[in-house]
Design a protein that fits this description.
single chain; about 75% helix; mainly alpha; about 200 residues; Tetracycline Repressor, domain 2; about 0% strand
């Protein structure tokens, strides 16, 4: 007999609490009991929602990926200039980092450094990164079409460069407790290297 499934709302609360835990303590440092207690779900109920901690990790990564895609779409939506939209998107991330007092960082990058042994989670992280990169590449392709940035390099390559440089700047931000490395990353790329 199949186990009854609990509400989707409870599952979503577990995923959101898991994302907060993974950001604060990493995948291995976040216990399932800790997440269940924070949401007020009995310990034995975990398997009503997830088959394993690994499937829980996939759900958290997928949730984070959807949040990135939604935030990028929200930032790009009202902007007729895709570079203005990208600045708004990255500006929101900077605001989140400042609000967290530079402790959170990027879930994808944090877990990427921690989960190299799990092929399933590595694939989820790779898919999340690719979805983010593709959204940025679409915006850069639009900017190329408007003559706002150079078009001698493929938009997807520029997007890879931007996100990879951003992630490096996030590490420096966490070390220095300063938003300046992120500003410098955007300035060097969007205001210099990417220009036509």
């Amino acid at each position: 007999m199949a186990r009854p499934r609990r509400s989707d709302d409870t599952r979503q609360m577990l995923v959101e609490e898991g994302a907060a835990g993974f950001l604060a303590n990493g995948y291995h440092g976040t216990g399932i009991k800790q997440v269940l207690d924070a949401v007020g779900v009995p310990k034995g109920s975990f398997y009503n929602y997830f088959d394993s901690k690994e499937s829980f990790g996939r759900a958290v990564i997928d949730h984070h990926s959807r949040c990135i895609q939604r935030n990028l779409a929200d930032a790009l939506g009202p902007a007729s200039d895709p570079i203005v939209g990208l600045r708004a998107f990255f500006g929101r991330l900077m605001g989140d980092f400042v609000a967290s007092e530079f402790t959170g960082g990027c879930l994808i990058a944090n877990l990427g450094g921690e989960l190299e042994g799990s092929e399933t989670l590595r694939e989820s992280l790779s898919s999340a990164f690719t979805a983010w990169r593709d959204g940025v590449a679409d915006a850069l392709r639009d900017a190329q079409g408007q003559g706002l940035i150079r078009d001698d390099i493929a938009a997807v390559e520029l997007a890879d460069l931007l996100i990879e440089a951003w992630e490096g700047a996030v590490i420096r931000m966490k070390i220095d407790h300063s938003i300046e490395p992120l500003r410098k990353c955007l300035r060097r790329l969007l205001d210099d290297y990417f220009l036509p």
